[in-house]
Specification:
The two termini are 26 Å apart. The strands form four sheets. This protein has a six-stranded antiparallel beta barrel with strand order 11-12-13-16-15-14. It has a six-stranded antiparallel beta barrel with strand order 5-6-7-10-9-8. The protein has a three-stranded mixed sheet with strand order 2-18-19, with no helix packed on it. It is 7% helix and 33% strand. The chain is globular and about 45 Å long. The protein is mainly beta. It is built from three helices and 19 strands.
Length: 314
Amino acid sequence: MLRMSIHLSFVITLLATLTLGASSATAGGLEAPVVGGTPVPSGRWPEVAAVLLREGLCSGTLVAPDVVLTAAHCVDGGPLEVVLDSVDFARSGGERIRVAWSRAYPSWESRYDAGVLVLEHPARTKPGRVAARCTAREEVYPGQSVTVVGFGVTGASVTEENTRLHEGTMQITDASCYYDTACRESIAPDGEFMAGGRGVDACFGDSGGPVYLDAPDGPALIGIVSRGTSLPGVPCGGGGIYVRADRVASWVERVTGRRLARTACEGRADAPDADGDGAGCAAGGAGTVGAALGLLLLGGVTMARARSRTKRRA
């Protein structure tokens, strides 16, 4: 586990913010210096996926041979294909697999910002493990170091693109996501957690990407990149809110019919899941989606939808 607090290299530029439930609420362009980052060496996180949308980019994690876990608002973006086992999805190599169908968590805008992508065929890449509930109970606490990984943009220009995978180490600041107004009351406490701040954060293009915990038996997926906090100021750098992967793992299994690998510990594998009907918003082969969220346009304008002044990180 890396112990030095570092930031994923992104452009921290926001040209417009759309508020949920409002016809249009835009803010002027904001720009801040790009904080240093660390490119991921080849082979370090092969299960991390670049999720290519119709008009944008997200990140995700392969959690079963043909299942990628990402953010629900990325599902609304119309995922087309994923690239696995690559540290630069613009270059040759890696696995490119089309998305057969996708689904968002039920009522995700007020609950878990999580979604699944079922691929057209199984990947050769080995899936990552999800932290079991008993692991999360012991290892998720304020001050704990976690590693966020994603394909967020890296340039200070709004037209500059990034196709490289980056990682950064940050600390959990609110293990239950209880104190910030951006935390969702319907799943609090313990449905989400807050981490990062003071320049350590995830940002646009990293939505749906993984946050890893260094569990006693090795790295495990503990969080899904969702959105920024309610703090005013620049859209990235002040910390973020992450969906607890152990809270949605059983839903993923019900929806996809696949089993997920968990960490080994004594106790419950999964946290209680209150929305166990498996119904969700479908995309691709499974049906239609609702209105698209603001997306990061590759090589173009950075857009983000906001809820209670929070910034989603697609």
